[in-house]
Queue: 2 jobs
Job 1
Amino acid sequence: MKRDGFVERVAFALTFFGAIFVVLILVLMFVVLLYASLDAIEHFGVFRFVFSVKWDPSKSIFGGAGPIYGTVITTIIALIIAVPVSLGIAVFISQLCPEFLKDIFSYSIEMLATIPSIVYGMWGLFSLAPIMRNYIEPFLQRVFLPIPGLRLLFEGTPLGIDLLTSGVVLSIMIIPFIGSIARDNFELVPKELIESAYAMGATRWEVIRDVIIPYSKLGIFGGIIIATGRALGETMAVAFVLGNDHSIHLSLLKSSTTISVTLANEFTEADFNLYSSSLFYLAFILLFLSFLLLGLAKFIVKRRFSR
Amino acid sequence: MRYMLRRRINNTIFLGLSVMAALFGAFWLLFIIVSILKNGFQAINWDLFFKDPAPPGFSGGGLRSAFVGQLIITVLASAIGVPIGILGGTFLSEYGRGTRLSRIVSDIADIMISLPSIVVGTFVYTVVVRPMGHFSGYAGAISLAIIMIPVILRSTEEVLRLVPWDLREAAFALGAPYHRVIMDVVYRSAAGGLFTGVILGIARVATETAPLLFTSFNNPFFSLNPNEAMPSLTVTIYQYAMGPYDDWHRLAWGASFVIVVFVLIVNISGRLFIRRRFGR
């Protein structure tokens, strides 16, 4: 009996350690990355780093605005494409799809989520980029270049290695996330609500717009934020199709870089302290942003389900 | 009547758009799968698995070293990550069930699952690679383990929660201490689910690239020593796909093909298993 008490305590301690480990690592990650970026923080401060575009390792000048801009723009493009498409997919799967196709469609969309990001990247470079360069981007230019304001977004020679292509690849990567979260939320809508709306004579689209979507909007919103977090931090898929250009261009058909792509490309090349410290600074910013977003999503989804 | 007509037209338009969205999604999947099949399949031969890379510019060669390196790194990562993840998940569902602490840990684990993996790479670089003074398979394994732990932790928690509380009470009533109940009752009745969760967790990290870039780095030579820089399939794909040689591209497609087939098999069988066992 005495031995049992001891083993019990050991079992408790071990499992407790396993649980607390995750928290420790997260805290440690923040501390270590912050510590490693102290040099750059001292040197450039916060505002000067975040808003300065100049990134010139040979002169020891580092500004993070380029990668931060690229990160934000690619994420926005990805969301603009992915949100409507994945909501459409969720509507289709949960409301329109014939029963026997439901599983097939659900599976195939979820399969998109399991394809490794490195494969997305390679596919983006060899299969998607040529199509973007030869067909889609020239087409967009024909449509938008005559329009005064919008022409700024589509100037330049289409290369296929640019913000737009990266946004497209990212959107394909996050469509399954938003899609499956939206589908799950649609399925939580009480049948009575839907049926009473039909009984009032509503069309399918009206039921979807006025009953299903409002009922599940918080859950979907949470899903979108999680997907945003993904898009912000995605590295490999973007590293192939974004080029690595720290300058800022308004045009979506220009090369750019993101925080994660900069890290992937330059981390092992950073041969002096301020350089690597600046990269750590970028990593810290990325960690901080993602943590904030994901925490927010968690909070929203929690509120949704604890009601 | 005009009003009814407008509603009906709207209905058709938006439902049509939704069908198009679904087709759009399916189109990308097909496009990607076809690309990988078309380019990858022709790169599959015995050489891919049993020969080491040829020097740059020479044709032929395979990716034996990368396959072996990937295997070693993944196994090491699992050796670290699986026990910690399962133990932690056990705490959340058993000793800490319903407590504030376990809710907080659960939430944090959920957040960590989605944190950018490249950040984990930079972190491990600082705490492992720098002090050791060189890239290593160990560092790669540690970074994968850090990504794996929250995944396994959460899946373990979910699976153990499905075990009916009555079962535990029955065992308590026989006088069994909690750790015996966990080992003999909880784990045993949840074994299938635990196993599936672990496999899915491993599959998830086996395809990570970004955290390996600065931890295990790469190494063109065959190596069984995790204490030095080690090649992995994913980093090799990155390097080869970015490289200038057609032969490298061919190998990269071949490796992508193998990875995608692996991931699809693991995921489909895992999901089918969960579905059969637990319904939906």
Note: The mean pLDDT of chain B is 89.
Job 2
Amino acid sequence: MSTETEEIADIKVDTIGDFYFPENHVYDAGFGLSEKTIDYICDVKNDPEWVREFRKKALQVFNEKPMPTHWATKDLENIHFDEFRYYLAGDRKPKRSWDEVPEEIKRTFDRLGIPEQERKYLAGVEAQYDSEAAYSNIKAAVEEQGVIFVNSTEGLQKHPEIFRKWFGKVIPTGDNKFSALNSAVFSGGSFIYIPPGVKVKHPLQAYFRINSEQFGQFERTLIIADEGAEVMYMEGCTAPKFETATLHSAVVELVAMKDAKIQYVTVQNWSSNVFNLVTKRGLAHENAEIRWIDCNIGSRLTMKYPGVVMKGRKARGEVISIALANTGQHQDTGAKMIHAADETTSNVISKSISIGQGRSTYRGLVHIPKHLKGCKNNTECDALLINSRSRTDTYPAISVRGNQHATQHEASVSQVSAEQLFYMQQRGLSEAEAMSLSVNGFINDLVREFPMEYSVELKRLIDLEMEGSVG
Amino acid sequence: MSTALMSAPATVATWFSKLQYQAGERFAAMPSPIRTDEHWRYGSVKQAEAMLAIESVAALSDADKGRALSESTSTLEAAVRLIFANDELLNPEALGSLPEGVTLVPLLEAASRMPELMQEHFMARETSLGGIKFSQMHQARTRAGIVLHVAKGVQMEKPIEVFHWIGGRGSVFPHTLIVSEPNSQITVLEHQRSLDDEEQGVVAVTDLHARDGAKIIYGVVQDLNLKSRAVHLTSASVHKAATATALLMNLGAAWVRNESVSRMEGAGAESYMLGVSSPHDTQEVDQRTFQHHAAPRAKSDLLYKNVLDDQARTVFSGLIFVDEGAHYTDAYQTCRNLLNSDTCEANSMPGLEINADQVKCSHGSTSSPVDKDELFYLMARGIPDQASRTLITLGFLEDVFTRLNHEALQTAVCQRLEEKFAVPF
């Protein structure tokens, strides 16, 4: 984080993402979660009856499921669900023109650089502020190709024939406690449909911003690339740091039909009070490809294991991830690769860096069931430890049946070599600069996978995280 | 331990009887493993329950004892060869020929003759890999096995060989405790074998203690019949500049559960954990390992190789754990599965938990079939398909044995493996 000291009226400013405006909500579901909360959300959003039912069933599942602390961190038990607000919104309708966006929200996204990116680089952008999208726009040329890019509420109301067919099919409500929570109170997120054969040249982007204290953000994203379609979607997330905890529990479902390609890029930079518990999974049909490119910086606890179910022959799944855990943070990330058809291939490359007393964890699953032929998986995870109190863990699980598959998993833990640091210091770099350069070198080959604008941002974020962390 | 000693419990040390009674109470009160326990992930709790229910074996007939004595053969030129059958030592006279400084005593006798050593080491550390109920079962019922003490500086060249035979329906509980004092050296090879085709069980515990600069090489070849079940809990405490090498080889049994812990207690400690399994038919091998680095500058290297045929199934779950302050740790963990049939199943869960920096730790796991190019090369030279596959399989497993760093032991275990595969030229 930078030490920016700009003074802006009405907002508190410390660092790039760590500022917030006073709350000015029209809609507030209040604290705690019950059927009343769900009715409130349904009424405000004018949800169809099936969605109300869906949400209430999900609430039941959420209440019944225990916290997964038999394998995960006990810090989950510090989440007090009654102390969160589950729906906060100003004007509910997203603006199509930047000028119409309320001033304070506009200033928030201005500060985060959203409009410049949109003009320069993006095919469409959606900016979510607490529970609802504040701004949503898609370039006319892309829209003319039949591409749908709206928020999830608009998706389910205006395109029910596509939305309902896939919604909750890749990640069912009961998948885990947090997918059930999201299913109960979801709001915001993106709905994208790319018609057959359409290749969206420039990325679509969503930006998720939490502004309010003791708030839970539960966006729901559903992306469908029809036969032969291609799309890149990028998301960024920030939140200011409050004394109290903030909850972010998204569900992202991707569907790549035959020969389609979806690339989903996440750069998250949550503040260190956010519990970030996200479920992300893609369904790849014949010869389709789904790539998750994931960078996790910040948050108090992140639990996120993007997965691909390779349902069609020759489908491909890939997860490329970078995690950076600083003091007080636990990055529990990984990947799930479910091979469900012949000749499917998956690749996982994960790199983590633990700084100060930070803890990073890789948790993976590769599953190749019986009767399949010619499946391949490659998994590599490398961890870098920066200080004597930092910690890293790796827990993969690989299950293979039959003799026509090949899987390989490799993991290593190391530290920046003293010789390397010495060499750089001899040439005039400070210890911190040398360390930062080494860390950037460690992740350099993965950073190249990110779009250029994000690569630059990433390197900068890592430099900032590294400040003062050596010694 | 003589037969007389076994039939007269009054001669067993009181402290030991009391310990066994307490373990029996704990065993009875303890729940069986359940599916949601992380230590039993992918494992078979039904097999575990069946194993826990099986009674101890009855005494053997003289004819069976004779068969056990005559069939206890191997290529190993052993200093001492002890033969147990249904927990009874059949050749106590063999104990007389040991060099000075090496004390080898049957388990129950050791409880009376070496109480201090026994009280310090016998089941002193609770098992942490899910088999605690088996550990209590063993502690309550064990009555055979060896306690081996090697005095400071004594380096015994020839290995000690121990056979554990089992006949009829029921379980045996062989115990092995080896304490190797500073700068001593000892090698032990054990065999677990069935005399017949009855449903049998072995719940074995092996504890190795290598003091500063000591060197222990230990191997066990489990070759029970295909109705049997085998549980083996092994642990090694490796002190400053000491080395412990332990090989677990599984050729038989319907269901096998191996839990192995190696604890690096002193700087410069080295632990080599080796595993070879070749399950076929519907055999299942469940392996859980833990490399615990409690001291800096220690090394541990684990290599498990499995060859799976038919509907065989393996589970490997391993963890390298580095304590805070255990800097300059050098730890490796590798599990490789060779998949020889389209119905076999290999599950791998290698793991790392690192709490110190300045470490080199890595793990790897692979599962794949025989390399087609290798097969083509051999077949192009006139070697039939099946023979080529067997040669490749033996080659695949051989580098585990070379890590034993003991030629005679390597030859003995290799030969046992070759007998099993019996290359059909």
Note: The first helix of chain B runs from residue 3 to 7.
